[in-house]
Amino acid sequence: MTQKLLRFEGLFVLLASLYFYSILENHSWLWFILLLFVPDISMIGYAFNEQIGSILYNIFHSYLIPIFVVILAFFITNEWLFSIAIIWMAHIGMDRMLGFGLKYPSGFKDTHLQRV
User: Where exactly are the transmembrane stretches of this chain (predicted)?
Assistant: First the structure.
């Protein structure tokens, strides 16, 4: 039940992100698609070891930083920064929906959602 709830939460975040991106003016869907997978570059940390890989991956796959970026974008009224944060949250939501969670240092396949 918990896993289904977390996947549904990811779907909701993805759909909400798509909606909020759609109401932004002058933002390209091509950029959305191209930037959607940028957070996965954080997997490069696994080239060093599983400890560094999990830390780097979790930093870029937690909602904390994109939420901070949304707040910052709001206060400095920067729509471009806001769109980056929305795309970032869409990526995290998509990952959660597919069952990819935050990583444990024991291995790339060990996540908070399941063993992938």
Answer: 5-23, 29-48, 55-76, 82-102
* Domains of the chain, residue spans: 2-111
78: its two tokens: 């920067």
Rounded Cα distance between 114 and 22, Å, is 32
Q: Provide the CB-side half-sphere exposure for 41 (13 A, CA).
A: 7
Give the per-residue pLDDT at 115: 56
The answer to whether the CB of 79 falls within 8 A of the CB of 73 is yes
- Is residue 66 packed enough to be buried (19+ CB in 10 Å), middle (13-18) or exposed (0-12)? buried
Total Cβ atoms within 10 A of residue 85 = 22
* C-beta separation of 83 from 13 below 8 A: no
* Confidence class for position 104, pLDDT limits 50, 70, 90: confident
Rounded Cα distance, 44 and 114, in Å: 21
